[in-house]
Amino acid sequence: MSPRAERYVLDHHGLRWPGCCRSFVSAAVAAGVVGLASCGTSGLSGDRRIALGDFARTEDALRSEGLAVSTHVMSPEVTDGPEVAVTEVISADGSRVEASGVVRERRADGTTAVDASSPLVVASRVDPGNSWPVDALVGQINGRPIFADSFFEPIAEELVAAASNPDRAVGRQQFVGAVKALFKRTVDNELIVAEAESQLSPEQQQGLFAWVRSIQEETIAERGGSRAAAEASLASEEDKSLDEFLAQRRDVALAMRLLNQRIEPRAIVSWREVLQAYERDVKVYNPPRQIRIGRIQLDPATEAERVARVEAMVAEGKPFSAIATELGLANGGLWQSSDLGDEGIDGLPLTDAVKSRIKDLPVDRVSPSLQQRGLTSWFAVLSIDQPVARSVYDMDLQLAITAQLRDIRRAIERQRYIGTLRSRWVTDDISAMEERLVAFALERYWR
User: Considering the entire predicted model, what is its pTM?
Assistant: First the structure.
């Protein structure tokens, strides 16, 4: 009888032998090469279990026993882990110990940037005799444990920045606020997912399981074709395992389904509400005209020559912009910009002397000079701009107002619905968990 040829499958658990034995072996990966052997041979009673030492034997020796052997070269992203920097730090008893941290980037000068909140960095700042908490189980939400280390990971940099704020009062307020905001989002998300799960029928649960399995197959196919490659890709890009990635996709789908059922029907915006919102902000959608006024101002006592030059150019009929350019005035001689209402020039916050000189003055034409407080000034209207007015019957504007109102309504209804869930699911332990998280964060990051 010829040997049976069955392929081993290397996944995140190790080397799996499908078919007859289905035994698991620790992953034996050396220099990116993995050997694969067959399941049974002729002349042997029963199945032959593979041993870890078989991977150290030559292919010829394995083939001599009737095992089918093939060699596959795996890509570096499958076998290589994250780059880790190791350094020595002084422990509480004064001895030197090694600490490590994941390298975020390697600089051009050869130095490395390590995760700012990693044990490597934090431990190096801890004075001898002081403690630095590593992790703690602060409680459970709907049966899911909350560990402090993984909980604070998304906002670790924000906490470090708040702790470094020179204004300690403001920094502490930002610090505690960040912890409480993250905890509230976590509790709300867990409540929504738990409520969504409780409303699934047996048939819907089976459908959800099939959908998650299809997502798993698609993810593996898109990320290297094997579970090991997908695990390595997700670990490098999103710092999560395949199971964590699938759980996140599942929770998001459940939450969206529940919110669409409970909130969307209450987030409908009527035409009357669109009209009221338009009328409330009518000046925003129909802004007034904008007038830009230029001014040349010189001191005759110290700039007599320049005053004479301006007078000569004005007599020649040169435009204000050309004179301003020749004098080298900043911003083309722009003096001020104002809204031009229905009253026109008369409604501007200017003196009557200035208004009389620029009223009915063509754009870029220089006004007669004005002697004021020992200075000689010339004025000009640089431009009058009319922004585009938008009607309430503008389809794009209607859609924008509707979307804005719907987002506001969704936020209100979401908080109202979560408040209902909190009254049914949440106990007094939630407040105690929040206090423990704040205390842990202060002890760990507030230095």
Answer: 0.49
